[in-house]
Structure formats: structure tokens, C-alpha cells
Amino acid sequence: MGKIQCFLVEETGNSAIFLRRYASGSVCSGKMGFHNASVQIDQQPTKFDSEGYLETVTPPPKDDPRWPTRCECGYEFTAQDEWQCYQDELFISKNPEINNWSGTCRQMPPGAMAYISRYQTWPFYYPGDDGKVLMVMTPGGEWVIDSRANNGPKDARGWTRSGTPPLVTANPSILIGDRYHGWLRNGWLEEC
Question: Is the separation of the CB atoms in 178 and 155 below 8 Å?
């Protein structure tokens, strides 16, 4: 995978609204490993609950034709499979010269770096010297730099960061399960 240049993205204040169907405990050849399908149906201003979490969205009736009916593998969802309606924050690139990207948090490509306002008051997130919580999308998934490490004390910061986004360095290295092991050095994700 080599090196990936990071680029800063920012919240737009809007969220995409999705309808999702999935089959818990199923096995699928698709990218999720279980039967799953989502479709965007709307866009609206992002709404948070009193604890800073994304607000629950009221789903349309189950007979609404916009609900996904099948997984990418061809599996047809049953009435007993899960029904979910959710919002996903929309972001846009602040460094279009590096990567002219826009989309939802779940769609961020590796290298996207964002201050996530909703993390500011959550437990186990520790704002950096700039008073903000910074997240980076790695090839192995989302990594919140200003958080505790899974293998560290529950009340301690896992990484230190220096620099101004996107030119950030963090220590120690990043380990996301068995999906990614790397470094963030001067705005570049570097595989170990």
C-alpha cells in the first residue's frame, strides 16, 4: 500500500439519510461479510441528541418502495431481517489540490482527516492542544488520533500529535486490528 497523503475535510452541517436492510448473523460473499444494503433517500441538516450523538431518524413505513430489497450477492431480504434508517454526516475537502472529495463519513477514502465535533465531549476522546478531536481514515478504517488506545489505560490518551492538519505526526504507530499497521508522519500514512 505504501504511503498515502492526508487531506483535511470538514463537516458541511448536513447529513445524508439512508435506508438500510441487513441480516444479522448471516454470511455473505460481499464486502461486509453479511447480507447488507443501503440507499440514500434524502439530505437534511445534521441533528444531534442531547448527548452529542447523531439523532435517530424516523424511518418511512416498511412498505415504502425505497427500502433495499436485496443484498449485492442477490440475497432477498425477509420481513424478519433488520430495518434501519440513519443519518451520516457529509464532509467536503478543504485541500482540493490534494484530493477533491466530498461524501459521508462512512465513504471517506484513506487519508481523509477531519475534526469531528460530536467527539468533543464523548468519554475516551481527548481534544488535542488545539482543543479539537482529530480523526483520520486509514486503509483499515477510522482512527481517532485523540482517543485512548484499545491496549492502553481506559483513562489515558493513546497517541500524541503534533503539527497542523493535514501535516500531522502522531506517535506511537497505528494498529487497527489485523487490517492496518502504520505511522502518521508529517501528513502521510506510511505502512509498517
Answer: no
DSSP 84: E
47-92 pLDDT tens trace: 988 877 888 899 999 999 999 999 999 999 999 999 999 999 999 9
Among 100, 108, 118, 114, residue whose Cα is nearest residue 46: 118
Does residue 137 contact residue 109 with C-beta atoms inside 8 Å?
A: yes
Report the distance separating Cα 68 and Cα 19, nearest Å: 7
60: cell is 418511512
**Sign (positive or negative) of CA dihedral 126, 128, 133, 137:** negative
Q: Give dist(CA 139, CA 111) in Å, integer.
A: 8
3-state secondary structure of 24: coil
Evaluate whether 54 touches 87 at the Cβ level (below 8 Å).
yes
pTM of the predicted model as reported, rounded to 2 decimal places: 0.80
